[in-house]
Write a structure and sequence with these properties.
Layout lengths: L7 E6 L4 E7 L12 E2 L14 E2 L1 E4 L5 E4 L13 E4 L7 H9 L9 H27 L11 E7 L6 H13 L9 E8 H12 L9 E7 L4 E10 L6 E4 L4 E3 L3 H16 L3 H4 L6 H6 L2 H9 L9 E5 L14 E2 L2 E5 H28 L6 E7 H4 L2 H12 L10 E4 L6 H15 L6 E5 L3 E9 L10 E3 L6 E11 L4 E3 L4 E9 L7 E9 L16 E9 L9 E4 L10 E13 L4 E7 L2 E2 L7 E5 L9
Length: about 625
Amino acid sequence: MASERPDILVAIDLGTTYTGVAWARPQRNQTLQSPIQIIHNWPGTSTKNEQKVHTCLVYNDDESLSSWGYLCEDDDMIDKKKKREFFKIFLDQQTLEDAHRRNIGQVPNSVRDAQRLVSDYLREVYSHVKSTVELHTGISHVGWQELVVEFIFSVPTTWRSQEIINSFKKCIEDAGFGIEGQYHTAKVELTESEAAAVGTIKNSPVVFEAGDIFLSVDAGGGTTDLALMQVVEARQPFPLLSQLNQVDGIGIGSTLIDQAFVAMINNRLSRFPNLLDQLPPDCAERLVKSERYRTTKHKFGERVYQSTCYKLPLDGVPYNLNHSGAQIELGRIVVSWEEMQSLFDPHVEGIMKKIHGQLDWMLANGINRPISYMILSGGLGSSKYVRDRIQHEMMTSLYPHAHQVKVLQAPDPQLVVVKGLLLDRLQNLESGLVPVIVSRVARASYGLVCKTKYNPDIHFGEDIKTDSYDGEQYAMGQIDWLIRKGDSINTNVPISTTYTKKVDPKDSNRSWDSIVVISDLDPCLLPRSVHQEGFKQLCIVKSDITGISHGDMVMRRKSRRFLFHGKKFYLCSYEVRAIVAPAELRFELWFAGQKFSGNHEPIKITWDAEGSKVGG
């Protein structure tokens, strides 16, 4: 690569309902800050400058794509066209199965179908991002393919399994991210809760101090993500955060409020069959997409918008239509304040349950320092009603110090995730590879299957073999747990294991497999060997040291007790480093203190279908 420093950074926050994109050109002079550009020239927005683009697709009858984003609003829905929304959440098999059980409409048939929708949508986003960056930088004459372009994605905290992350990464690649140029890369970098926490510490008007604890609550369209953070270093421009507890999430978001509203209106209208003949068949669906409803939902709870009822115009209904039973006045349906409240409260209670879980964890682990701030972000998190309800719950809570928590809205709550993604990477570049989050908590245990020298007191009943080189007895199929669930992992220090491979000079095969296993059990219950239960095979890591010469190895001779005297073999010591990113697991092969990369790929990973589901 001509330069590891990217020419262009692009962050993408693929949302359930809306998607945000930001980009920056990292400054070569590290004393200068790189300005962040938010993409807002989305097709179909007319004169409006929208900070995000609608996560929506319309397909023709032959399954070809008709429109995407805001263009869907003007698409003439004829000839059996289909509008597809909320497809991101169905990359999760469990969410998909739950939706099928509940007979929710327009749900993909399978995860593969959801992948196609995500890929189709992201392909359009990629094309627009590329043209926008070229337009605003004048780099098209240089050649987009020749630039070092880094794409950074976030994922919901609810996506706990490697299976979903792998599925999402395949969608990203199919859409064109990271593959068009030789120096293009695409990474799944932070969970949405972590990105929101980074965006908060880097952008907030709040003056944080070292030691402050804050809870980031990012409540978006489909999920609510939580991250409990402690400020390690508050000094700008390079603050540092430590994750106190595992990031957590729940499938609660503003789309559920919309679904509940549609169900409420349909239930009300269904009691009057004669009225239904005078209304469009999709009356409730049109209403939930109307500007008046969106305003009512977003402003609900604000003092200047306070009202005992809200009158929402019905699209396609005569202005003089009245119906007392259905509460329709002059073509407008009347929704009471209490009815609007009933849409919000179940979801606020669900969020509060997760907040209580974080407070319980602090009590159980003897953390006496109180939470200083609770920072709300996302579409639902920007609701004043939600904010006031959570603040009231804190003020009346029996938890120690809960009444001291200040519940605040994040700056640019709709953009805090996408900005956090960029700001984290920019700090990494500008500070000399120091990310904002310097430690995080492992969400599962990871181990390697290995052999260890036989100990009769420990290895009773295990598979014992004698090594053909050194004549020693080894217990096979043992598990070396490199990372235990709940461990605090230093972001800058990879989990490293040194291996010594015995190499026959006449054997040309210089590659072998290492089995990585995963477990959700408490650390005290982890199995010691593959003969016990409580783990799944996560992947096979193939290490290939082809290219390392015998001169770089240590020569040994076979044991006199074994085979014939004088036969040579070599010992090759190398490291396999596991990089535990917040949303995925990566591996690197290091030899003699340097990352090894011969004329081949030194590390190849084969994911196990069952093991990659663990953590979901």
